[in-house]
Amino acid sequence: MLRKMLKVFLRFLALVLIALAIFLINLIWFRPWSLNLFYEKVFVQILFEEPELLSSIGIAEQFGFTAHNGKLGDASPAHQQHYFDRARQNLADLRAYSIDRQTPSQQLSTHILDWYMDRELEGEKYQWHNYPVNQLFGAQNEFPSFMANQHRLLAPRDCEYYLMRLDALPRKFDQLLESLRVREQKQILPPRFVVEKVLKEMNGFVAQPAAENILSSSFKDRAAKIKELTDAQRGDFQKRVEDAVHDRVYPAYQKLIDYFTAVLPKTTTDDGVWKLPDGEAFYAYALRKNTTTPMAPQEVHDLGVREVARIEAEMRSILDANGYKDQTIGDAMEALGKDPRFQFSADDKGRADALAEYTRLITQSTERCKQLFLTQAKAKIEVRRIPEFKEATSAGAYYQGAAMDGTRPGVFYANLRDMSEVSKWSMPTLAYHEGVPGHHWQISIAQELRGLPQFRKLIPFTAYQEGWALYTEWLAKEAGWYEGDPFGDLGRLQAELFRAVRLVVDTGIHAKRWPRERAIGYMREKTGMGEKEVTAEIERYIVNPGQACAYKVGMLKMQELRMRAQKELGPKFDQRQFHEVVLQNGAMPLEILEEQVNAYIQRTK
């Protein structure tokens, strides 16, 4: 009897395994029967081929998957082409699902994913039109920053993974060099100043004793918090890390240094992408992808000029009322930037005080947000200094999202390279933009959504994400957060002016062939910002064409949609409900967001 039951059980088990095998084969190699499974298949395909991204998100660890934490992504030309080939097949598969049989939620997911993949494939012919080694977000400075801040170090196993990633760097940099040579053959080289800056950065990076390098020092600080390690084990791991930095990481960087030293004489001082093959068409595509609108370069440029004039008029009014009537806006803002009333001391205490003030502002705004939003973000946020090795060429601030498993908070990174650039009247707006209710609020709420495909929580649309952050700067004004603080409001307007100026200089550089110096001069004249800060910004736009235009375009669209809802709904308009519509579907192209808001207006009517 027992043997008979065992046979029945084994047959049943075999059938289950066969069914599971058929399911997995269908899921992995063919178009899944279920559209929801297809969404996850696309998400998993991309994510598991990008181990650094997977580590940053912190989603796989919740299910016990950790092997990716010992790997680095493939940077080879072959892998790059594989990405486009797979996207082409996925788009064809997506379009094979009948739209009429999909739920409204699925229809929206399909609409967003179709738009995204279509734009990606549109850019296949421009896949070499970028600079993977650059002063802002290049492979050479992203790797140490990633290892110091995002590679998890919570257990002894994570230390082994850390070493595996250090060991994997030479292979990744060899692949990177292969892709750089392809670009060189196609006459795609960065401007001269980019090469000069990355050479200075990399030479400084390898000149440090291995024990003092951020890869070693950050490991030491974080490994000290792992309770399962003994002092002897920590010492052993530390020596292995320092040996890997000296024996494998530094030689990999030296190869890049040698390559760019040889390339430097071939570079030019032409800064815009107009100089690249089919450069004008590429820039039009870059604007389309970043703004998620069909606006042409001249349209974006003209919009910027109009917005600069409007914002200057508002700033003029505040300056005239506060003792700066006889100064130009640029001169007045420059004077305010040097006013001792609004400065921190240029030492470690001043930097600590600035971080504490950013933290206070974010704590205060989080409490105030209860009046503006129905859904509250759950993820924590911290304020940190941008790592010193990269702050010279970094922007004034940036945000890094929290891990989805809760092991790492969201981080607002502030640039404290020069404390004369950190004026107290500018801090509220930056805290709202990068923290709450800006990037941290929006990105965390998206990651915490339930019942949506994973890609909807993470898909990047610059115009939506940056447009939201800039919209929240204006929202703070609408909510009365600047009452009794004219200089804080002036800081808000300067920040908005800064984004309007971006429309002018980005299109100026890439479509109108402005040299870098003209763009720097224009931004300094209009904003009164410091020369170092402006120079870093202009150099950012040069290596990331079109991205800086997404902020103002996105903000203006969200303001337009809000005003439309207010006008059509009248007393039925509730800004908390409006914010739910904007935030509760994750990031999306502006044209799809407009469809969603229009549908909300009709429902509410």
List keywords for this structure.
605 residues; mainly alpha; three-stranded mixed β-sheet
Note down, in words, how this protein is organized.
The protein has 605 residues and is an all-alpha fold. It has a domain at 281-557. The protein is built from 25 helices and 3 strands. It has helices at 2-29, 35-48, 51-57, 77-96, 104-122, 139-149, 156-185, 192-207, 214-223, 231-263, 279-291, 297-321, 329-338, 348-368, 388-391, 427-434, 439-447, 454-458, 462-478, 486-510, 516-527, 531-543, 550-569, 575-583, 590-604, and strands at residues 381-385, 397-400, 410-414. The chain has a 3-stranded mixed beta sheet, covered by helices on one side.
- Sketch the major β-sheet: 3 strands, mixed
Q: What sort of overall outline do the alpha carbons produce when their principal axes are compared?
A: globular
In spatial order, strands of the major sheet run 1-3-2
Number of helices: 25
Through-space gap between termini: 70 Å
Number of E strands: 3
Helical residue percent band? 55-70%
Please tell me the overall pLDDT. Answer: 93
Radius of gyration: 26 Å
Helix and strand run: HHHHHHHHHHHHHHEHEEHHHHHHHHHH
Q: Identify low-pLDDT runs.
A: 4-30
Going by helix content, strand content and strand pairing, the class is mainly alpha
* Approximate strand percentage: under 5%
